[in-house]
């Protein structure tokens, strides 16, 4: 934590976290927390993904996809979607295998 950063309490899907944040970054952080909560809630409501860890990973993938689509603009979206679906399938299988261990 740098000297100007203060600890700030945030809540994501009902879980509390303390993060370092400078006063001028607080508004942006709260907007990011709100956006992440909404994305995770959307995934949870679809009912296809269970478990907070899985929901968080899927939200991260979706947000990354949105970012890359916006940033890169003219790349092959359909190919990226196919790759994302493949990653999702692989991730689901890996997490299912991991859950069998416990």
Describe this entry's structure for a reader.
- This protein is α+β, with helices and mostly antiparallel strands and 102 residues long.
- The chain has a single domain, classed as 2-Layer Sandwich (Double Stranded RNA Binding Domain).
- The protein contains three helices and two strands.
- The chain has helices at 26-46, 52-72, 77-100, and strands at residues 6-12, 15-21.
- A hairpin with a 2-residue loop joins strand 1 (6-12) and strand 2.
- Helix 1 packs across helix 2 and helix 2 (52-72) packs antiparallel against helix 3 (77-100).
- The mean pLDDT is 84.
Keywords:
two-stranded antiparallel ribbon, alpha+beta, Double Stranded RNA Binding Domain, 3 helices, single chain, 102 residues
- How far do the termini sit from each other? 35 Å
The helix count comes to 3
CATH class: Alpha Beta
SSE pattern, N- to C-terminal: EEHHH
Q: Which residues sit in consecutive blocks of at least 5 with pLDDT less than 50?
A: none
| Named CATH topology | Double Stranded RNA Binding Domain
Short description:
The protein is of the alpha+beta class and 102 residues long. Helices cover 65% and strands 14% of the residues.
């Amino acid at each position: 934590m740098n000297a100007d950063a203060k600890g700030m309490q945030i809540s994501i899907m009902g879980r509390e976290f303390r993060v370092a944040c400078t006063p001028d970054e607080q508004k942006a952080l709260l907007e990011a927390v709100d956006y992440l909560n909404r994305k995770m809630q959307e995934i949870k409501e679809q009912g296809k993904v269970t478990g907070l860890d899985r929901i968080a990973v899927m939200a991260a993938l979706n947000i990354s996809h949105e970012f890359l689509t916006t940033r890169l603009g003219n790349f092959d979206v359909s190919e990226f979607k196919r790759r994302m679906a493949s990653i999702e399938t692989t991730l689901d299988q890996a997490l299912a295998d991991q859950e069998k261990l416990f």
